[in-house]
Amino acid sequence: MLQGMTSEPELQNGVGTQDAFQRLWTPHRMAYIQGENKPTGPGAGDGCPFCAIPEMSDEDGLVIARGATVYAVLNLYPYNGGHLMVVPYRHVADYTDLALAETAELADFTKRAMGALRSASGAHGFNIGMNQGTVAGAGIAAHLHQHVVPRWGGDTNFMPVVGHTKVLPQLLADTRKMLADAWPTG
To answer: Per-residue pLDDT for the chain (186 aa), expressed as one digit of tens each?
Structure first.
């Protein structure tokens, strides 16, 4: 045990004292918890971040690659490092409403995302999918988006299980550049 530390839990009164990682403060998560950047309505003009991102630079929007009908973008609130989404430019909520070209490019970009993540980070596996509708867990139900979450053997450790906190070893801007550089062309 480190000098000055005891095995007894410290009582928290007021601000408290430094506690050598007995708590991991993650104030940046409050933006997600409070719904920052959530659309105010179902329309494309109702504050949809997926409609706004294509107007930004790749760096500012965390865009990894752009296609004719879809783009790949890092998730601001990732489950794992490299967690990205494939998003149609068109503001459409339901998978069945995609045009054939959008469906084909969404599938192609999903394959490319897997290739880029394997190449750049050595991902062992993936969780791939989309939540259709708010009741199915879609955070932004009005604009369809497919998640591509890289996984590694042993990537679930005590932090998310016990601490309910995900530790990401790389800044989003650095992850965006790494994946953009590894994005397969053609």
So the answer is: 445 555 555 554 555 555 555 555 667 667 666 666 677 677 767 889 999 999 999 999 999 999 999 999 999 888 888 999 999 999 999 999 999 999 999 999 999 999 999 999 999 999 999 999 888 888 889 999 999 999 888 666 545 544 556 666 677 888 888 889 988 887
List, as one string, the DSSP characters of 14-55. TT----TTSS---GGGHHHHTTTT--SSSSTTTT-HHHHGGG
* E strand residue ranges, the chain: 63-66, 70-74, 84-88, 125-129, 146-151
150, 82 Cβ separation under 8 angstroms = yes
Active site residue 145: yes
- Catalytic residue (one of 91, 143, 145, 147): 145
Q: How many beta carbons lie within 10 A of that of residue 70, not counting itself?
A: 28
